[in-house]
Amino acid sequence: MAYSDKVIDHYSNPRNVGTLDKSKANVGTGLVGAPECGDVMRLQIEVDENQVITDAKFKTFGCGSAIASSSLATEWLKGKSIDDALSIDNMEIVEELALPPVKIHCSVLAEDAIKAAINDYRVKNGLPALEEAKAH
Ligand code: FES
Ligand code: FES
To answer: Which residue numbers delimit the NIF system FeS cluster assembly NifU N-terminal domain (predicted)?
Structure first.
């Protein structure tokens, strides 16, 4: 399988690998798995009082495309409001990384992880849960 230069760049030099303190009220954690391959992705966001994402971290146990998708996702998340972050669509990740069809589910994992993290933040802070969080 030929990876694009952007996948190789994110895979070799992943942005924002790490862990945020999930016991903090302003940290949302999303943990999702891909039924297709068993790969697992954890994505976390830290949100300020204006509901803007100030930090994002990930750990992905999976393929190069999943690592690149989550690395890219953390870059896109920083500075976005949690509402704007919800509009990140996996197909934008597919386009940016030039993922082939068999790797589309790797980008779906990233979108699901974003929504799960936002949902966790919302529930922790007394906001209604996102129905979309488990939509895929
Ligand atoms: Fe091989 Fe995901 S299927 S790492
Ligand atoms: Fe399953 Fe990439 S997440 S192959």
So the answer is: 2-125
